[in-house]
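Design review, sub-item: ligand-bound model
Attendees: FS, YL, KQ
YL presented the inputs for the adenosine-5'-diphosphate complex:
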Amino acid sequence: MMRIRQLPPSVITKIAAGEVIERPSSVVKELLENAVDAGSSRVDVDVEQGGIELIRVVDNGRGIFADDLPLAFASHATSKLTSADDLFQVQTLGFRGEALASIGGISQVALQSRPADQGQGAEITCHGGDLSAVRAWNGAVGTRLEVRHLFFNTPVRRKFLRTPGTEMGHICEVFTRLALARPELHLTLRHNGKDVYQLPASDRLQERIALFFGTEVGDRLYAVEARHGPVHLHGFVADPACSRGNAKMQYLFLNGRWIRDRSLGYALQEAYRGLLLTGRYAVSFLFLDMPPELVDVNVHPTKAEVRFRDAQTLFTFLHSTVRQRLTDENLTPRLQPTSTLANPQQPGAQVLPWLRPRYVEETAPLFAQGGLPAFTKVASPPAPPVPANGNPASESCLPPPPGGAPSPAQAAREAATQLPSSLPDQAKAIQLYNAYLVLETPEGMLVIDQHALHERILFEYLQERLRSGTLEVQKLLIPEPVELTAEQAARVLEQRQSLAELGLEVEDFGGGTLLVASYPALLHKRSPGQILKTIVDFLCAQDRPPTRLQLLNDLLSVMACHAAVRAGDPLTPEEIASLAAQRDLAADHHHCPHGRPTSLLFTRQDLDRQFRRI
Ligand code: ADP
Ligand code: MG
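KQ shared the predicted structure:
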């Protein structure tokens, strides 16, 4: 067994430095990786309060010699690397000898370990970098690490931790990545004494994928396997029907290590070209194995990014392998919804104004070809400072002051909710449970989720508006203060530009208070505070700042979700007919922006068969 040794300065200087412990999930990641490197076959993880109070990782690996325990906490001390040359031959997950030193410096750690060939184990504690003496310990073969009170001695960093729930979310992600990389390990995760995952060892990756993501993904995977010289690519890609709204489910592993790689992510998306709608992302679990000298894993502090010797060849290899695999499949969706609901010759004629936002002047149908109606876009200059007496600030503000005469916009809003005298003749539709619409169509019985479909229609409508710069904005008479935490306020201000594009103008009032000066008119039913809090939740759920386009897209989907009719809303027959008619006009009426189906078709033939007519 390799002993732990201090790395020579010549190697230390070549190691990519950087803060590795950012939050509880970073600790879990490092400890899990150490357990894997120790050759364990079982690892149990227990956390309390999202890992902020306790993280315990117990493995049955080869253990650490008593004499080496203090060294485990020394900076740049490792058993996995000896010379600088080894840096290009890395076979283990760890190699920098930094993790335990960093963890021991900012928490209270108890390390207990017993190597397989030792009759007795030993233990040591490290509190904020202070080491205890090594004592004898009677425990099972393997290593047990307890990390308590993370950041207890760095209050500022402790303060920046999120809620236990959010931190637990990050831990689950780290755990998932490792569990997918090593199906042969028996792994468990518990939170506050409750089981989160119990994963028995398995030799089938697919089984493990199904444990994490259910049969929705597990049953729709296509195995991929190809070689190119010394490079081996294997794993699964999912049917395009199980796409997602972000790239989080594109798992990529290099030599057993989870990585992210922009270029390979792009290669994957390209392989799905034509099979996915814009804004949708493929689901995949791909493993690349190659000799360590073909890749530098020492370029990123947490090793989440690597540098390939020949990135271009890999791009082509992954792209063509996945593309070929998808071409081999017959990818016709299993539930092919019908497209004959509305009269296809005259789509615009069947559109009722009800689905459109009700507050703006508008005469043309929602998806009419050419000549979108001239919406009154309220100009959005920077918000004036709030006068202490709350004077109305702008001329064209909506809504009018309470008690005032109805504004033209208000009149238009009412006009827009009037129904045209003749309804499309397709009203063989009923509403069930105030949530689903059931329609008779030539193909069969169509069941529509009213919220999902309306959400999709509004989402596309908003996208179109954003593209053409005609998104309606509602200016507030008096900017409304919204109180947030300092960190939340900072997150929102970071995205101020993109939010302004959507009509949401915010100003910093100081002390965590933001002033909302205007907001997207579609959300008129919500208070500015509610809107901002939704956006804060959304922004805080992101690992890294989203790109402008991602952010806009995601916020549009948040807006569409809020503005759409909900399950539980009763609809009039006209509204039902209108919603059904607009279904065919949406570019993707199969899925809501979150990827849930909007409708299911039970074919005439299915019904006949079930009732034994045929
Ligand atoms: P690295 O993993 O980069 O070597 P760490 O700080 O994570 O650095 O760990 C330092 C050393 O402690 C490792 O090289 C290894 O020898 C030993 N070690 C840590 N955790 C374990 C474990 N669970 N089982 C056996 N040895 C361990
Ligand atoms: Mg390590």
